[in-house]
Amino acid sequence: ALDPALRRPGRFDLEIEFDPPDVDERKEILKIILNNYAKDRYENINFDEIAEQTVGFTGADLLQLVNEALLQAALEGREKINHNDLLRAKSAVKPSALREFYLEKPKDRSNELSSEIIAKIKQIAEEFVSHQTFKPILLPWDQADRIASTIAYYVCNQLHCPYIVVRATWFRSRWFGEMERSIRQLFEKIKRLQPCIVYIKGLDAIANSKNEHLHGAVLEITSYLDEFRENDVKTLLVSSIIREIDDILRDIFMEL
């Protein structure tokens, strides 16, 4: 959140970045919070499931989750919260680790797609759920939103992972190095939040090296995609394009 000028070398000698808790850490944090703040006021909670469904939540987010559940139970005249209360409260808490990105609740839009496309979508979703490895998909522009949302719907229903939606035009900047920095922030965030589904709209807005202003952006994107492939980052990355993208990038993506 600091101005980049404050983070130049010589201003602060050291930066320490704390990643959000993983699933096991979230489970333990939630137990501590409930025992400290809601002792004898909760019952029938599946800690494993809540931990799995709170990707990107920090300790403060989990505390807010409990507070929201307690408030809702009080409004309904109940003294204790249960598993379903925490699941309902989740929609009112945005994870701190995802605050700068747009989290979207995916919808099943298969009724707007052909049977052939639906079959491909189900295959992609089933493969990712079974083998959570890096999978980059390139979508046709005219149906991209519907396809991306439906893929995410099938996957999120089983993995309960975040669905992050970004527009490539958000990264465009007239300031030198700012676009590359924003791209790095996105991909570094993805690494810390896996498994997740990411939908980048209009990737060609930042993926055309023929435009001299985008050369650095193409290098950043290519570098991260290569890294994700080599390390099997658990991310389903779907992208749409309006025009053309560099061949080196197109070769990485599987086209639907």
SSE blueprint and pairings:
Layout: H1 23-37, H2 47-52, H3 59-75, H4 83-89, E1 102-103, H5 115-130, E2 135-139, H6 144-159, E3 163-167, H7 178-193, E4 196-201, H8 215-231, E5 235-240, H9 247-250, E6 254-255
Parallel strand pairs: 2-5, 2-6, 3-4, 4-5
Antiparallel strand pairs: 1-3
Structural class: alpha/beta
- Overall shape: it is globular
How many angstroms does the end-to-end distance come to?
Answer: 37 Å
Spatial order of strands in the largest sheet: 1-3-4-5-2-6
Specify the oligomeric state: single chain
Mean pLDDT: 86
What does the main sheet amount to? 6 strands, mixed
**What helical percentage do the residues reach?**
40-55%
Strand proportion: 5-15%
Note the main attributes of this structure.
256 residues; alpha/beta; 6 strands
Write a brief structural summary.
The chain is α/β, with parallel strands linked by helices and 256 residues long. It is 45% helix and 10% strand.
Description:
With about 260 residues, the protein is α/β, with parallel strands linked by helices. It is built from 9 helices and 6 strands, in the order ααααβαβαβαβαβαβ. The protein has a 6-stranded mixed sheet with strand order 1-3-4-5-2-6, with helices on both faces. Strand 3 (about 165), helix 7 and strand 4 form a beta-alpha-beta unit. Helix 5 packs parallel to helix 6 and helix 7 (about 180-195) packs parallel to helix 8 (about 215-230). The two termini are about 35 Å apart. The model has no long low-confidence stretch (mean pLDDT about 85).
